[in-house]
Amino acid sequence: MQEIVKKLTSLNKTISIMESCTGGALANEITNIEGASEVFKFGAVTYSNEFKIKMKINASLIDKYSVYSQEVANNMAYTIANFTNSNYAVGITGKLNKVDKYNLYSDNDVVYVSIYDKDLDKYYELKIKLEKKNRLECKQEVINEIIKLLKKIVL
Q1: pTM of the model
Q2: Pairwise CA distance, residues 92 & 114, whole Å
Q3: Residue ranges of the alpha helices (H) in the chain?
Q4: Could you tell me which CATH class the domain 2-154 is placed in?
Q5: Computed from CA positions of residues 24, 25, 26, 29, in that sequence, does the dihedral angle turn out positive or negative?
């Protein structure tokens, strides 16, 4: 993450995040880096459908595809990029080892990630099938995959 923060700083670019199942882990990873305040604009943890919708996530996408879908991850990234006017934005949604009684029709142990490049109007997508069973390890697995993708995009 240090390389990413350094590169974003040198490019005068910013990043914001809307994450759900990772519960702020990506924001934490970024803000652990000295100088992150130069590039990190905003992080929202929208754990419930209610607050995704309050943050302007399209409810019809949730109804049609499930809250745990690439379409919703893309909408999260797009929405937070525009809300914060960030160059890059990350949307993260998925299920970590748990049945969700409010969102039954979706894959278990799958996380959807979208990185939106606002300047290019381009999405980079990840679908991560989790192998770990420990929640903390699952979150770290997701963060590691996001860092790999961010490096490809930014560096």
Answers
A1: 0.94
A2: 7
A3: 2-11, 25-31, 49-54, 59-65, 70-84, 135-154
A4: alpha beta
A5: positive
